[in-house]
């Protein structure tokens, strides 16, 4: 179904206004009221994402060399205001509330207490966090870590910490003796890192910002730009105005991908003129993308045959295929053997729908493929990406201006953390060079990713967990079992800016260590320190915070990592924690030494406008695969979900609202989807509601339906009609995470499959505990 083919049924399409526009201004004003940010916020917003300024802590989208007056979006502003709140979560707060009592609070209310101000230690006798000194915390952490086998420790990182912090954190893990470095990427774009590496020999996207100025078409699969990377709407709007076509595949009709009103254009704001973003919009079934892409490939191959026989012209690029790829004939034979019946059934789209989309691809000389969690968070996520690369290779749409594969990354430095060594896979890290640089023998054994770390926490083999940011317990699958197993660990340490649920599910010995936010001034011995991050387009940016820290007791993440490491490790003349903390330029020099090809002249290039490009072999058509070529992959499965259809079984899509950043819930207004005042909803196609004998407003529960005998339940959801394909239901992440089995993940990368979870609706929910 394309946009034009859909009726805007009053009951099911709640919000008919564009992304951006006055709504986004109102949404920023509301959060300003809630957080009562410090007055410096306006100055900070003016410096956001600009050369020499500070880099947004929200999404990872690229930052242009010539920024707009305000180079931030609604959600970037919210993230900054959230960090610069005037609220404080102090020792007095912890004295008033036991940890057990705080467990009853929801995510929004916990973070609403504001910035953490003091290092805190968990006191078992009173079941409270009590203030402690940094020295006490580091000494205790060091003693605990020295008392266990290093392989019993897990060092998690949420993708926000800088390259400097991340490099030291990974070095700490290896000097101590493990590669157990799971990252939020393991729940996010790990599928990308594994699948793209396999087929094009590079783990990251190949497009850069300039490509958006010359592409003819952009295909969007499962990425919600309007909420999750709104600054990307600017290049999209520009592309549309130039005449580029945008084709979207998404089970949900996301407003931000339909229309956009630029809040930075007074004319658009005053005249109410919107830009239509998507030329064509297809509501593919959750998990139906392999089938849809297979259909597109079938159409392209058919067009090639027809045009070649009638006009002796090519649709595909046979020279590119011959010179740069392997596996074309096998892929072609397999795709041709798939029937249109199967494709239509699995994708939920018609042959004619797919013809329209294929025609755009065929006519476009240069196309960019963009995608997000809608592709990566499936059991066959990696297979889906391989299918997408098949389509892109057909026309040589990789490694040419105006083209490329462009995964839209999540956390603002998640890609960079992998670049500088936060990786559980030792083969991704230049261990020999580290050995030489720091005079030690790095561990070579494969470390634990997120899923494996969870398994070993469940089995009791992991004894210590350090969280460098994030809200691990809330973000992972299988939450109920994980929360029950968590306190069996001996040591848990959380480095954070605000209180969240993971801090309340603590080990026997537990510390909560408050750190500076990125917008705050980081003063060390040599003066104010800059830090760096890598965006989704592989560009590295410097960031300089200049706000007064939320509390004088905060330490930088660099200093906290160094403090723990120093207290844990034996002295080593090549490892100079104090000198590194005193001047972060020394850490950048170390990064340069480890990764000279990508980070040469690092310190000089920190503030390059638009960031400096770290390079990507696949963009240069150098394929770092075993064959030295890019790989066509014959399609194996047509469905990306990992279960069969059955009566009463639905595919649950876990969604982000426009009013959250992952587990940080700013508020209860999912403005772009018209869902207000609550997150406890079950979004359903009206025909499914009727067929199941339910009614709008009925309160129901969801039960896991994975068939493994484990009872998984979430109750208290209000049935809400919504434009979803039949058989798919939607509700919010992280509330739905108890329904996802730990074993239900992408087969190749083990990314949890949060977009196609098997569930049943239960109408007799027991009362909520
Ligand atoms: N404001 C804000 N910004 C954020 C975040 C946030 O929470 N809030 N999170 C950050 C992070 S860490 C990340 S990873 C990114 C996430 O950004 P996205 O990648 O956009 O992730 P989601 O919002 O989870 O889902 C993406 C889209 O996939 C669609 N979808 C679901 N299933 C399928 C399917 O089977 N096929 C297709 N084609 N589409 C499907 C959903 O309808 C949704 O529109 O955003 C980052 N930016
Ligand atoms: N069902 C389902 N589950 C999912 C997903 C999904 O789509 N569906 N998405 C997955 C994805 S893509 C991701 S990335 C993960 C996210 O998982 P995480 O990255 O672990 O979670 P966040 O919610 O981003 O972490 C929020 C916390 O980070 C801390 N924080 C904020 N800023 C800073 C800082 O500057 N420094 C430090 N040290 N701490 C800080 C705050 O205390 C805040 O409470 O969740 C995954 N889980
Ligand atoms: Mo993410």
TrEMBL record:
The keyword Metal-binding applies. InterPro entries: Asp_de-COase-like_dom_sf (IPR009010), MopB_CT_YdeP (IPR037951), MoPterin_dinucl-bd_dom (IPR006657), Mopterin_OxRdtase (IPR006656), Mopterin_OxRdtse_a_bac (IPR010046), Prok_molybdopt-oxidoreductase (IPR050123), YdeP_MopB (IPR041953). One of its GO terms (molecular function) is 4 iron, 4 sulfur cluster binding. Keywords: 4Fe-4S, Iron, Iron-sulfur, Metal-binding, Molybdenum, Oxidoreductase, Plasmid. Pfam families: Molybdopterin, Molydop_binding. CDD domains: MopB_CT_ydeP, MopB_ydeP. Its cofactor is Mo-bis(molybdopterin guanine dinucleotide); [4Fe-4S] cluster. One of its GO terms (biological process) is cellular respiration. The keyword 4Fe-4S applies. Residues 650-757 form the Molybdopterin dinucleotide-binding domain. This is Formate dehydrogenase. The lineage of its organism: Bacteria, Pseudomonadati, Pseudomonadota, Alphaproteobacteria, Rhodospirillales.
């Amino acid at each position: 179904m394309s946009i034009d083919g859909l009726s805007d049924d009053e009951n099911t399409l709640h919000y008919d206004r564009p992304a951006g526009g006055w709504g986004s201004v109102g949404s920023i004003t509301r959060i300003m009221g809630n957080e009562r940010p410090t007055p410096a916020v306006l100055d900070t917003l003016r410096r956001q994402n600009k050369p020499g300024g500070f880099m947004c802590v929200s999404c990872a989208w690229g930052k242009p060399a010539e920024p707009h007056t305000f180079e931030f979006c609604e959600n970037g502003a919210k993230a900054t205001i959230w960090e610069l709140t005037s609220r404080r979560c102090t020792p007095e707060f912890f004295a008033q509330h036991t940890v057990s009592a705080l467990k009853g609070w929801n995510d929004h209310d916990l973070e609403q207490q504001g910035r953490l101000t003091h290092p805190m230690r968990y006191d078992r006798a009173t079941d409270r966090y009590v203030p402690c000194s940094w020295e006490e915390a580091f000494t205790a952490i060091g003693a605990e870590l020295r008392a266990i086998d290093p392989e019993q420790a897990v060092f998690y990182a949420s993708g926000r910490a800088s390259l400097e912090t991340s490099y030291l954190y990974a070095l700490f893990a290896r000097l101590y003796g493990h590669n157990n470095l799971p990252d939020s990427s393991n729940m996010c774009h790990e599928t990308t890192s594994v699948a793209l590496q396999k087929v094009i020999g590079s783990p990251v996207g190949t497009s850069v910002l300039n490509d958006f100025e010359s592409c003819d078409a952009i295909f969007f699969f499962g990425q919600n730009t309007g909420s999750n990377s709104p600054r990307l709407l600017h290049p999209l709007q520009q592309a549309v105005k130039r005449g580029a076509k945008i084709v979207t595949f998404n089970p949900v009709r996301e407003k931000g991908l339909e229309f956009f009103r630029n809040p930075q254009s007074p004319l658009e704001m005053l005249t109410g003129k919107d830009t239509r973003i998507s030329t064509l919009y297809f509501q593919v079934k959750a998990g139906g993308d392999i089938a849809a892409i297979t259909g597109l490939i079938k159409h392209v191959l058919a067009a090639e045959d027809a045009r070649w026989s009638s006009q002796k012209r090519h649709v595909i690029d046979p020279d590119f295929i011959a010179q740069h790829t392997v596996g074309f004939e096998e892929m072609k034979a397999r795709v041709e053997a798939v029937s249109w019946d199967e494709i239509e059934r699995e994708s939920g789209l018609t042959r004619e729908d797919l013809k329209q989309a294929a025609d755009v691809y065929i006519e476009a000389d240069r196309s960019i493929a963009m995608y997000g969690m809608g592709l990566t968070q499936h059991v066959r996520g990696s297979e889906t990406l391989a299918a997408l690369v098949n389509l892109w290779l057909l026309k040589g749409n990789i490694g040419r201006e105006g083209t490329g594969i462009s995964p839209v990354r999540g956390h603002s430095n998640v890609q960079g953390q992998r670049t500088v060594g936060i990786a559980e896979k030792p083969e991704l890290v230049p261990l020999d060079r580290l050995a030489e640089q720091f005079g030690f023998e790095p561990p070579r054994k494969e470390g634990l990713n997120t899923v494996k770390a969870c398994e070993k926490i469940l089995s009791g083999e992991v004894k210590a967990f350090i969280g460098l940011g994030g809200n691990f317990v809330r973000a992972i699958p299988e939450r109920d079992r994980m929360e029950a197993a968590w306190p069996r660990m001996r040591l848990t340490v959380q480095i954070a800016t605000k209180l969240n649920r993971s801090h309340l599910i603590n080990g026997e010995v537990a510390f909560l260590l408050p750190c500076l936010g990125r917008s705050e001034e980081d003063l060390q011995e040599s003066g104010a320190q800059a830090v760096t991050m890598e965006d989704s387009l592989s560009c590295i940016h410097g960031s300089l915070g200049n706000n007064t820290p939320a509390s004088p007791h905060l330490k930088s993440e660099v200093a906290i990592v160094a403090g723990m490491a120093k207290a844990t490790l034996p002295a080593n003349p090549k490892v100079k924690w104090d000198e590194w903390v005193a001047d972060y330029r020394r850490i950048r020099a170390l990064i340069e030494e480890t990764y000279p090809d990508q980070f040469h002249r690092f310190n000089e290039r920190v503030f390059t406008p638009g960031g400096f490009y770290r390079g990507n072999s696949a963009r240069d058509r150098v394929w770092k695969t075993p064959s030295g070529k890019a790989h066509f992959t014959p399609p194996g499965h047509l469905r990306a979900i990992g279960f069969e259809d059955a009566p009463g079984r639905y595919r649950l899509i876990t969604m982000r609202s426009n009013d959250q950043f992952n587990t940080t819930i700013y508020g209860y207004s999912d403005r772009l989807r018209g869902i207000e005042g609550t997150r406890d909803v079950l979004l359903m196609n009206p025909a499914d509601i009727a067929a199941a004998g339910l009614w709008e407003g009925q309160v129901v529960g969801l039960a896991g339906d994975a068939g493994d005998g484990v009872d998984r339940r979430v109750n208290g959801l209000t049935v809400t009609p919504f434009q979803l394909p039949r058989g798919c239901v939607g509700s919010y992440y992280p509330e739905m995470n108890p329904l996802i089995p730990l074993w239900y993940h992408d087969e190749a990368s083990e990314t949890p499959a949060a977009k196609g979870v098997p569930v049943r609706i239960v109408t007799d929910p027991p009362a909520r505990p």
